[in-house]
Design a protein that fits this description.
7 strands
């Protein structure tokens, strides 16, 4: 084999190897930062077992908010209409956090409790992730909950 041809083959091999390493590093990085949104029903059905960290979406159950008087720990329950899941969060809650309000919490399961590292409260009905909106719509239809239409803005 000629030296020029050998150099070309080595160069092509090195380029292909570098592309393979870069692609696998990118796929690994993206998979580590992916965050799935699940409802309490999906979590209790075992769909969260594969995820180290995920988002829990639903409504804060009325009467479920309990503040620890000696720390920033807050315990509350998230419901999707069918099932409820207890949530534990340590930190300052958003101003819009309250009962019967949509919430998305990021965290992990520890025993039967979802331990949240971040809590986001939804401020109005103009945006909700599609997966959560579909799950909540199914739960409302199952329980015959009537949702009032949004009022038109002037």
């Amino acid at each position: 084999m000629r030296p020029l041809r050998r150099r070309r083959i080595v160069l092509i091999g090195l380029i292909l190897g570098a592309v393979a390493i870069a692609t696998s590093a990118m796929v690994y990085g993206l998979s580590q930062n992916m965050s799935y949104l699940l409802t309490p029903s999906q979590v209790l059905a075992g769909k969260a077992a594969d995820y180290r960290s995920f988002r829990l979406g639903g409504m804060v159950a009325p009467g479920s908010i309990a503040h620890d008087p000696h720390s920033l720990q807050v315990d509350f329950t998230v419901t999707d209409g069918d099932h409820t899941l207890p949530v534990q969060y340590t930190g300052i809650l958003p101003d819009l956090f309250r009962a019967n309000q949509a919430v998305i919490a990021t965290g992990h399961m520890q025993g039967g409790v979802f331990v949240a590292s971040e809590v986001l409260a939804k401020h109005d009905a103009t945006y909700m992730p599609r997966e959560l909106q579909q799950a909540m719509a199914q739960a409302h239809a199952k329980h015959h909950v009537v949702i009032p239409a949004p009022e038109p803005t002037p």
